[in-house]
Design brief:
The longest helix is centred in the first third of the chain and has 130 residues, at 10-139. The protein has helices spanning 2-8, 10-139, 158-165, 182-190, 196-200, 204-214, 226-234, 238-252. Helix 2 packs across helix 8 (238-252). It has 253 residues and is an all-alpha fold. The termini are far apart.
Length: 253
């Protein structure tokens, strides 16, 4: 009966309703909190998973960057080595080209020397041939043409002739003939023997007669070789004349 009275009490009902509302609100709050907390937890877990994934990707990217950096350093070293090798090869090629150029110059120089020696040999061989011919002529004298065969004078470069014979030479200078000095030259000119042609066409007997008639030291002079020497001078055969005169000097000594 008492409980019925209590239940019937309006105030009690209001309190009971308030308690129900409060408890329901609390339960609803707890439920909502649980729901929200579960969602947040799921989001947090999702965010953590994403963070871990990003960390993993970041680590992978960092490792790739390190690999790329190492590859770059390796490529730099290889490039430096290739440049060094290229520079070395360039220097080697330059040195080889320089050596080739030096060898070419030496070869050209040697070729010039060889050509010069061959030319000298040819010149000496020609000179030897002339000397042999002169010696042959000395051993087998050839008659010099006289009045019946006039001698034709050939002009020459007397500066060159002077150097060749080692003394001044002028045209028709009879003292060029070995054995004829200034006095003998004057004697011959007084006998109308004025030129090399005249002397070449004068017989040895006539020359001996002129010298004998002049008397004194002229009588001891041998004019045998004068016409031949004069013939060579008139024909501008100066090299033969020099060789012939040298042979005369040797035979006298």
């Amino acid at each position: 009966m008492i409980w019925l009275n209590i239940i019937g009490n309006t105030t009690f009902l209001m309190v009971a309703e308030t308690l129900v509302i409060v408890i329901g609100s609390m339960l609803m709050g707890v439920l909502l909190s649980y729901v929200v907390t579960g969602n947040v937890k799921k989001q947090v877990e999702g965010l953590q998973a994403e963070i871990e994934e990003e960390k993993k990707r970041s680590n992978e990217v960092r490792e790739q960057m390190q690999e790329l950096t190492q590859i770059r350093e390796d490529l730099k070293e290889e490039l430096s080595a290739m440049r060094l090798k290229s520079d070395t090869q360039s220097r080697t090629i330059y040195d080889q080209q320089l050596q080739i150029a030096i060898k070419d110059n030496e070869s050209k120089s040697h070729k010039g020397i060889v050509d010069g020696l061959n030319a000298s040999i040819d010149a000496y061989q020609r000179r030897l041939k002339v000397i042999e011919e002169e010696l042959s002529q000395i051993r087998n004298p050839v008659l010099i043409p006289h009045q019946s065969s006039p001698v034709v004078s050939i002009s020459a470069n007397y500066d060159h002739v002077s150097k060749l014979l080692g003394k001044p030479v002028t045209e028709n200078d009879l003292s060029v003939i070995y054995g004829i000095g200034p006095k003998t030259s004057a004697l011959l000119q007084s006998k109308s023997i004025q030129t090399w042609q005249d002397l070449a066409q004068t017989s040895i007997e006539m020359l001996k007669q002129i010298l004998t008639e002049a008397g004194g030291s002229f009588k001891s002079i041998d004019p045998t070789s004068w016409p031949k020497q004069a013939f060579m001078a008139a024909q501008s055969e100066w090299r033969k004349l020099r060789v012939y005169q040298e042979s005369l000097k040797k035979s006298e000594s």
